[in-house]
Amino acid sequence: MRVLLIGSGGREHALAWKMAASPLLTKLYAVPGNPGIGREAELVRFDIADHTAVARFCRENEIDLVVVGPEGPLVAGIADDLRAEGIRVFGPSKAAARLEGSKGFTKDLCAKYGVPTAAYGRFGDLASARAYVEKTGAPIVIKADGLAAGKGVTVAMTLDEARTALDVCFDGSFGQAGAEVVVEEFLIGEEASFFCLCDGTTALPFGTAQDHKRLSDGDTGPNTGGMGAYSPAPVMTPEMIDRTMREIVEPTMRGMAETGAPFSGVLFAGLMITDKGPKLIEYNTRFGDPECQVLMMRLKDDLLVLLNAAADGQLAHTSVRWRDDAALTVVMAARGYPGAPEKGSVIRGVEAAAGKGVEIFHAGTAINGGALVANGGRVLNITATGRTVGEAQKKAYAALDRIDWPQGFCRRDIGWLALAREQSK
Ligand code: AMP
To answer: From CA 204, how far away is CA 196, in angstroms rounded?
Structure first.
């Protein structure tokens, strides 16, 4: 198979690494990729926002499958435009990607199909949103409707914070994404990420994970794209997975099909496990980053076989096997992240730090004058497997400490919640 992978982060490096292990693969291209992905794929450069150019590349290079990593191109309709040209794609249509692209759309679908989620209101103007917030009181959660690069959500513990968050949305800080706002009930519980591969009709459970969104140890500091993750999530017991499938994923799949937008690709449910069971916080319509990195380390089966089955509507006849091992990834970020990360500092010792059960995925790197340099906020994902989360954590930090990059930093407590559970057993 000849495959084109779209994206340039640690998620895409993990996908490239796993696809490269498939006996089905004859050629892998990545656009734009990064130096780590470049070890697994031929990197090509063209504008992925220009879907005609993507289709032309696919025709000229006889691409059998396009795998889309990030949400942006999906929400922009890349899957529809390629399929219209007869090109096979793993990823949802524009209409189905609204599950990520519009929080209001998702909340309305949940209400219609009885999917448990936080109580909410949708508002197109400041005055009515403000009135709802004043009536409901804090804590309360304010969300810009559209994609806001992870910055559109405020968990307001006080009414003042909630008022400020509404002002920020409606003053145009998030552009069109903030023109509509969802205000919702504050949920209490433990968060978990749950993944399914979907083919329009069938959803195949595809692993669980927990991530650390906050910048600093003890889950403090500002929100980031994610500073680390591990899999599986201990809170996602087989019973909880069953309930999530029955109460959340299956009604969503049915709802999307009935709405004329059957969902195919990765359905990533951000869950709050409350004392009443799983509730949906949000959907994403692609793999999480860095959750994908730990899932790929644990996946026993051939990823390309599974992606093909999803693209061809064959998941009902497919199963998936995982290694018993846990996996954990630690993000190394460049000084300044998540604000303005410093670019260009030299990173040494990456190749030597990897080893048995340890992979180092590149997230934001570049080559400059033959040296590996930082080229983004989140730069490397030090990823390891182990019999327990604790063992995976030890291996990941031991590898990380062999990397020579004074301008990089990381959290030192990735996996703490799972570790506390393991230690209390
Ligand atoms: P989201 O971008 O929707 O995943 O939200 C970012 C983070 O905000 C989530 O990972 C949760 O920690 C938190 N959050 C979002 N919605 C709620 C809610 N209704 N109740 C409590 N926390 C929430």
So the answer is: 5
